[in-house]
């Protein structure tokens, strides 16, 4: 064991990273030195994906607070008020004793105790959150009724509770976009506290302003995936953030009659962060999004030249239509695309859209009409876009012949040929329980 003590900690951690949790657990029982190094890794992250009761994990944390300090990440799913679990008398007494030591309002603690006695998961998880002082990442997958959890976030946000001060990343994914409105609104407290927030399936035209006061939110990186927000909701989010560095938005499968915000409106609302925003995704489903009751050639349907004001923007992802007002020829929306030669002449060049700070550009839902725009970018790149290094183009396979030969000198160019199914998978395909899971965010 003396020789083992000479092994650098970094090497031990590398060894642990190659093993699954059960193997690390067995290895930790071989000697005291290994146990001391392996324990933080064993307890760093807890995953509860199968509606398992929280009894065992909560019992381990309550009975041995030393373990709690190692927990930095918590992934949970299907938290429900309507699914009580059997709980032993010993656990009830232990958990209720832990509740009594919390610095929270008595009325809240009474409700925690009552819920614990019945075996509900909402109070169990709320108590667990109170006992994890170093929790940094929290992922709620398909939560149902989480009144106590949301109220706990409210107490933390108002300064009445300090147990979640280290929380940095929060993700919530709803079961069904049709019921996402109330669910996300109730989490206003944690959305004000975390520095990085991911919301999957948000459908809210008018996000309640009472939950998000202007300039109050610590969120710097905001990912809204498979969502559908109205302009008012967009405004609430952008105004509430003090400093926004990332805004990633993908449009989901929502009711087409909703008054969702358009690319130009998004850019206008994001202008308050034009000196800090470094990454922007504005990705709509161009195959079927646009409808006949909208004037698709209207200026508001693409971003326009205002992006040039964003002096720190390095990474931009969007569709050909959202950038330039051009739909690929085989898009279902082309059937209602009104001919308007005047509007066609008013469309900007790509060189007039991109900010000088751009480094990485992704354009999807494209056809051959994007090539002249890219070639012009290449001509002026050295002087106008000196930091641009990588370009990804996603051609629609039904609108574009394969093996198009073109290059942009000095730039790394990646070309994709995507069927409708591949486009949908590329934009929306994601691993459950993951942070920003779509492939588009790993380009």
UniProtKB/TrEMBL annotation:
Q: Which InterPro entries match?
A: F-box-like_dom_sf, F-box_dom, LRR_dom_sf
Q: Which domain of life is it from?
A: Eukaryota
Domain F-box: from-to ranges: 1-46
What Pfam families does the record point to? F-box-like
Protein name in UniProt: F-box domain-containing protein
Provide the species name: Aspergillus ruber (strain CBS 135680)
């Amino acid at each position: 064991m003396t020789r083992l003590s000479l092994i650098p900690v970094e090497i031990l951690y590398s060894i642990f990273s190659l093993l699954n949790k059960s193997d690390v657990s067995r290895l930790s029982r071989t000697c005291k030195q290994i146990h001391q190094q392996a324990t933080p890794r064993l307890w760093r992250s807890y995953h509860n994906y199968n509606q398992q009761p929280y009894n065992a994990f909560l019992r381990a944390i309550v009975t041995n607070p030393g373990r709690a300090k190692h927990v930095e990440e918590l992934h949970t799913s299907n938290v429900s008020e309507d699914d009580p679990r059997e709980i032993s008398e010993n656990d009830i007494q232990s958990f209720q004793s832990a509740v009594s030591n919390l610095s929270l309002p008595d009325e809240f603690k009474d409700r925690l105790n009552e819920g614990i006695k019945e075996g509900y998961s909402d109070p169990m998880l709320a108590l667990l959150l109170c006992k994890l002082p170093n929790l940094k990442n929290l992922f709620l997958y398909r939560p149902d009724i989480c009144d106590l959890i949301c109220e706990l976030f409210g107490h933390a946000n108002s300064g009445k509770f300090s147990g979640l001060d280290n929380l940095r990343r929060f993700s919530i994914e709803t079961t069904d976009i049709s019921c996402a409105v109330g669910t996300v609104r109730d989490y206003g407290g944690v959305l004000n506290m975390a520095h990085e927030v991911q919301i999957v399936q948000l459908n809210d035209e008018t996000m309640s302003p009472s939950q998000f006061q202007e300039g109050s939110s610590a969120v710097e990186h905001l990912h809204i995936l498979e969502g559908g927000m109205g302009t008012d909701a967009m405004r609430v989010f952008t105004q509430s953030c003090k400093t926004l560095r990332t805004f990633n938005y993908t449009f989901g499968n929502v009711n087409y009659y909703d008054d969702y915000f358009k690319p130009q409106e998004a850019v206008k609302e994001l202008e308050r962060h034009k000196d800090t925003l470094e990454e922007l995704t504005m990705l709509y489903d161009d195959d079927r999004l646009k409808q006949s009751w909208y004037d698709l050639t209207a200026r508001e349907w693409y971003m326009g030249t205002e992006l040039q004001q964003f002096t720190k923007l390095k990474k931009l992802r969007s569709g050909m239509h959202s950038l330039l007002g051009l739909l690929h020829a085989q898009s279902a929306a082309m059937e209602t695309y009104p001919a308007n030669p005047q509007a066609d002449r008013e469309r900007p060049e790509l060189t007039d859209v991109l900010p000088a700070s751009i480094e990485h550009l992704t354009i999807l839902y494209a056809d051959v009409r994007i090539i002249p725009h890219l070639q012009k970018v290449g001509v002026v790149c050295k002087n106008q876009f000196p930091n641009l290094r990588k370009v990804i183009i996603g051609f629609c396979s039904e609108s574009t012949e394969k093996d198009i030969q073109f290059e942009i000198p000095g730039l790394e160019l990646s070309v994709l040929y995507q069927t409708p199914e591949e486009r949908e998978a590329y934009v929306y395909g994601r691993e459950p329980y993951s942070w920003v899971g779509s492939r588009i965010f790993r380009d």
